[in-house]
Amino acid sequence: MGYAKVLSVGLAGVAGHLVEVEADLAPGLPAVIISGLPDTALHEARDRVRAAIVNSGQKWPNRRITLNLLPATLPKYGSAFDLAIALAVLAGSGELPPVALDATVVLGELGLDGTVRPVRGTLPMVAAAARAGHTRVVVPAGNAAEAAVIPGVRVHAVDTLHRLVAHVRDGSPLLAPPAHVPVGGPAGPDLVDVAGQPLGRRALEIAAAGGHHLALLGPPGAGKTMLAERLPSILPELDDEAALEVTGLHSIAGLLPPGGGLLRRPPFQAPHHSATVPALVGGGSGLARPGAVSLAHRGVLFLDEAPEFGKGALEALRQPLESGRVRVARTRGATEYPARTQLVLAANPCPCAKPSGDVDCECPPLARRRYLGRLSGPLLDRVDVQVQLTAVRAAELLNTGAAPESSATVAARVVAARHAAAERWAATGHRVNADVPGPYLRRPPWHLPARVTTDLRRRLDTGSLSARGYDRVLRLAWTIADLDGQDRPGRDDVAEAVQLRTGEVA
């Protein structure tokens, strides 16, 4: 016959695209030519596939083999096409019946001994196959669990090329995917461990209820890191849509835990302050990989010792925080990843970082200004809640009375507040207050009367609040009202929102 075609899937960011792997075998000097914008890993596939076919007991055709990956204008990355290439070559040489591969999507990397190895990004690739109307997929056994979470798709697992060839020839059974078990995992550290800090706990609860960004400033030992690490424990579990997004991103990054089921807990990312711009927002040579801000999608991105991060890395976060997406441009195209995360910044008030705070600070005023000045105004303007924590007192640390509220207690209030916000903004397509555009809040029916926003208007006119800051205070006020079970914010809610935003009492 000389010609065969097998379906596979390629990735561009988190979006999968159906790829047709064509093989044409013609008389001539033996050679393998691959076209269709392949990367280095795909160019090396010719050697991997040849060795895998021979070591699986099959005959390698000594002809001129042309492999084409359609659409030819879409860049192709990685080794996930190996298995499809091997089947196309064997079908083109007459070793396999091509009709048995119709409408079947094949994914997998081949080892030289014919074993089929797992590949990154299986979940979004299988989801793309399902959207294109193909409900039968063959994936490596190591990826079968994550592939099986896509509804309406028949997943067949395979561990060797030999097993798959036998299946195509005579219908021998393939491996069944394991039962789907959602990956929930523990909620993480509990708020009951945090001593004192009523302002910090209140700020954390409001940030969780409204999806607001949070900055915690204070001396060492005040509990900034403890509070930030406990934010995921009071966030609601991810719904199906969010869980698929988060699991797909972690699949692309190769970070899925064993079992490969859906991730239900909001992710938590805490990169070191030496992290580069690509590590934070994504990048790398060839196919741009998701960075920490995307791996924290629908969860928390925590930057401890935030002023120690590079200025370029911090400023690179401004656009993702505003749009909820990261777009990484490369010469061969652009890659886009979702990045709707909650940012938590923690910072000491000065470089010397005395536990007693300003009392024993040894830093000159200029050094203090320069230190916190590394957190630029435009970046902080995007952070809704900015609170100053004080050192924990002995009475709070050694308190043997009633235990503080647990994460479960606070999480129940957060869920109720989020439910109220989701019902209110359902017509706008938004689910949390932090995502609602400012114009919605300033127009009927959601605008607040002048007697409630008098102080806000004054601050806007005097320049102590930017227009963005004005809208963010309104969002905070709505969240406070939701937590208190009110239909709309009152003057006291706005006053508390101003205090959380500016540190000043309204």
TrEMBL record:
Transmembrane segments: none annotated. It comes from the Bacteria. Residues 210-393 form the AAA+ ATPase domain. GO terms for molecular function: ATP binding. InterPro entries: AAA+_ATPase, CHLI-like, Mg_chelat-rel, Mg_chelat-rel_C, Mg_chelatse_chII-like_cat_dom, P-loop_NTPase, Ribosomal_Su5_D2-typ_SF, Ribsml_uS5_D2-typ_fold_subgr. SUPFAM superfamilies: P-loop containing nucleoside triphosphate hydrolases, Ribosomal protein S5 domain 2-like. Belongs to the Mg-chelatase subunits D/I family. ComM subfamily. This is Magnesium chelatase family protein. It comes from Micromonospora marina.
